[in-house]
Design a protein that fits this description.
39% of the residues lie in helices and 10% in strands. It has 7 helices and 4 strands, in the order E-H-H-H-E-E-H-H-H-H-E. Strand 2 and strand 3 form a beta hairpin.
């Protein structure tokens, strides 16, 4: 399939398969994204792969990745967790984790990262180089 230039309205997401295909461990990067409190909670990545997680709204118990759930339920409570001093790719990655990896366009990411233009976000995540597995849906 030929590469097609994405636009500011093209949806992206984290392609978890990209990590395996490129011999990279996404869990190491997830760990690096944890806030200090969560990093102290998880000393060993091997013990955090899957846990029983209770959805606070539905009380449904599901198997979930402990690092992702900590990022989504603890780290993101800090209003400074996603901030303008982060590199664009790291900030976008955190937004995708926060929204359950639902597809977002650079325009939609700009709404969550107003200090970066949609064009800047597109240049970072929409080029031929893949950052943190973020790819066109």
């Amino acid at each position: 399939m030929a590469w097609k230039r994405p636009t500011v309205d093209t949806p992206f997401h984290i392609d978890w398969d990209w990590w395996a295909a490129n011999d990279r461990n996404y869990r190491v990067y997830l760990y690096e994204q944890l806030c200090e409190e969560c990093r102290n909670r998880f000393q060993n990545l091997l013990d955090t792969e899957e846990v029983d997680w209770v959805d606070p709204e539905t009380a449904e118990v599901i198997r979930a990745d402990a690092l992702i759930m900590c990022l989504r339920t603890r780290c993101l409570e800090d209003p400074e967790y996603i901030n303008e001093s982060l590199p664009v790719a790291a900030a976008a990655f955190r937004v995708f984790i926060m929204n359950g990896n639902q597809p977002l366009s650079p325009t939609q990411l700009h709404e969550r990262l107003p200090w970066r233009t949609a064009d800047t976000i597109l240049r970072v995540i929409g080029g031929r180089a893949v950052h943190y597995g973020m790819r066109v849906v």
